[in-house]
From TrEMBL:
Residues 6-53 form the B box-type domain. One of its GO terms (molecular function) is zinc ion binding. This is B box-type domain-containing protein. PANTHER family: BONUS, ISOFORM C-RELATED (PTHR25462), MEIOTIC P26, ISOFORM F (PTHR25462:SF296). Keywords: Metal-binding, Zinc, Zinc-finger. Signal peptide: none annotated. CDD domains: Bbox1 (cd19757).
């Protein structure tokens, strides 16, 4: 696979810009709705594997670097040189591998890789990794739920404590105000008595 343009590859050749809706792994290009319809009906391409373009864009960068076409000659890889451990197009063989003798069909190499014990073990490992990731995700989801429940419990306790503190402060304020009013009344009484006494003396 190569770095993908978001525009339909076929339409770009016609100088038309249309968004790709699928990616053909065989043609190594994106296709719009109309071109994908022709692509799926054409005898030469109806067996090609296509994936939604949105899914293609989610693939890791290392995967997107792979391409089925020779970057030098723009021809599809067909042969695998076992000496150099490298895929070749027809021009590569003539230009760079004319002295090599150990060639195999690229499709055979891919088939052998897919059916090898190493690939089976890799698939099993990937399944285990996927299961472990699912467990981790579930555990994290459970943790989020627990944190949310704990937060709600703490919030409730904080509110209860706040109410108790408010009640205590209200009671303290009430007691202090009573004492203040009592003290004020007491002092007022003393002052009034003093003023009355002074008034009587003045009259004498």
């Amino acid at each position: 696979m190569a770095t993908a343009s978001k525009s339909c590859g076929v339409c770009e050749l016609r100088h038309i810009t249309k968004p790709s809706i699928v990616w053909c792994t065989e043609c190594d290009e994106g296709l719009c709705t109309e071109c994908n319809e022709h692509h799926s009906l054409s005898k030469s391409s109806r067996s090609h594997c296509v994936i939604p373009f949105t899914e293609y864009q989610k693939l890791p960068a290392d995967i997107l670097k792979f391409t089925q076409y020779c970057t030098k000659h723009d021809k599809k890889y067909q042969i695998y040189c076992q000496k150099h451990e490298f895929p070749c197009c027809s021009k590569c063989i003539v230009e760079s591998h004319n002295e090599c003798r150990d060639f195999v069909e690229l499709d055979d190499v891919i088939h052998n890789v897919k059916t090898s014990n190493a690939m089976c073990e890799l698939e099993e490992t990937l399944v285990e990794v996927a299961e472990n990731l699912q467990k981790i995700r579930q555990n994290q989801q459970d943790n989020l739920t627990k944190f949310k429940e704990s937060r709600k419990g703490i919030e409730t306790e904080i509110k209860k404590t706040r109410i108790k503190i408010n009640d205590h402060l209200d009671k303290l304020q009430e007691d202090l105000m009573k004492k203040l009013y009592a003290e004020e009344e007491k002092e007022n009484s003393k002052i009034c008595q003093l003023l009355s006494s002074l008034e009587r003396r003045k009259q004498k």
